[in-house]
Amino acid sequence: MSLPSHTRRQRPISGAIVDLGGMVESKITVFLVADNRLLRESLGRILHKRSDISVVGALPFSITILVQVIEAAPQVLLFHSLSGEACELEFIQGARRALPDIKVVLVGMACDEKIFLCAIRSGAVGYVLQEAGALDVVNAVRSVCQDEAVCPPRLCRTLIDFVVQENPARRTSRIRRQLGLSRREQQLVPLLSQGLTNKEIASRLNLSEQTVKNHIHRMLQKTGVPDREAIVELCAVPVLRQ
Q1: What's the pTM?
Q2: 112 and 200 share a domain?
C-alpha cells in the first residue's frame, strides 16, 4: 500500500538511505564489535529488526579491524565487553580520530569505576551494563545519535567526581602541592603567570620586595627549573601577560 504523498519525507540526518516504496528513510548505521559469535549474531538480528537501524559490520575484536570500521564509516560503534586493555582503548581512539563524528557505545559492561573512566577518557558516550536488555541497547544507540550520553545511574557520581577533579583550578592546586610549594609560594604562581615584577607582586601581597625575591628563589630550588616562566609552565598555569 502506497503512502499519501504528504507523508513522504526525508529525515535530515546522516546514515544509510533506503527507499521504501517511494518513502526515503534514513537509518542509523551501526558497526558491532563482539568476540562471542552467538552474541554478535543475536545482537545483530535484534538491531536489524529496527526500521531505523542498519548494521553495516559485525566482527570479533582485533586492532586490525579498524580498517573495516573506517571504511564502513558507521554513526555508532557498538563495542561489547571492553576490558580496558591498551589495544582496545587504542582502537577506540583510532576510530574517533578517523571518524570524528562516530559515537562509541560500550555494552555488556561491569559496574567498574576504573574501566568506566578509561572508557570516558577514550571518548565513549554510552556505557550499558551487562544486566541490560536488548531494548536498552537499542535505546542507547538511538540516544547517542541524538547527541545524548548514556550513563548508568550507579556511575553518575563517579563521572561527577572525575569532572570535578579534572577542573583546571583543582588540578593546578594539586600539582603545586606535589611540588612542595608552601601556601605563600602557591599564591605567587598566578601572579608570575601575569608577568608581574617582584615589586608589583610585593605590592599585591603587602610584602617586601626582598621577601618576594626569597620566595621565588626557593621555588626555583624546589622545582629545579631555570626561571620564573618555567615555574608557571610546570604548575600548569597559562602565561597571562597584562
Answers
A1: 0.62
A2: no
